[in-house]
């Protein structure tokens, strides 16, 4: 792990004075301007590093907490096939969390530190995972809308200026598209079923539609960090641009499925060449982000418990690694 006053550049170590930093900063700016990737050993402004750590950690936490609402249905999935699909999907989310914690570690933090920040509420995760999964249709709707929104958010991150994050996102996005398809396929099966099943799907869409739109974050006018993140090539589009893209992508999918999106103001605007949609309840968004969503306390308590229950695994793994290292040293000496 390295900290701010020692900088690595091309393998050499230089002191972090302003005078020495000027050419390094120029190098960084040139990398960004040429749309090349910044790598862990490159010099980077402290604010860039901090922004990335915050964003990647928040993303990793979302993947890990996001396992809970769906994990809730693994034992109750109606067939072996549905169980297998859901299990694979939830397992993928664990993998996404791991790639992302590893990407954050290249910036000089460690995973234990980030986990601590999550379970003590010092870092956030996506507001969407604070809503409950009340019916099995929610599994389909989460795949379709929540993973669908995640794809819109994440595909541009494959071109993020920070190399390790961009590369992690390539694989994550491939898996997210499987998640979206499995959700849509489940909903198609339910829509071909009984009236009760169709009602179940519609009721679930009614609950998840607005929270899905909130996944893109506050409106641009209320998102002070967007401009800097875009200048650094971390973010490629604004929150509202991505939200619009999601709405335009989802409307025809809803029609093909035969469900109604719960927004009377949702309609095609030929002048804009995009759909207009109703006002999002930003007060609800702020409440959920601030910790008063329907499941915030439950999600964090569950994560904390899982962390405590895993203490013996971490201890055993550390003891094993130490033993292996000691053995390797002994063999070298011999
Ligand atoms: Fe994921
Ligand atoms: Fe996913």
UniProtKB/TrEMBL annotation:
It is an enzyme of class 1 (oxidoreductase). InterPro entries: Aromatic_CoA_ox/epox, Ferritin-like, Ferritin-like_SF, PaaA, PaaA_PaaC. Keywords: Oxidoreductase. It comes from the Bacteria. Its EC number is 1.14.13.149. One of its GO terms (molecular function) is phenylacetyl-CoA 1,2-epoxidase activity. This is 1,2-phenylacetyl-CoA epoxidase subunit A. It comes from Pseudonocardia acidicola.
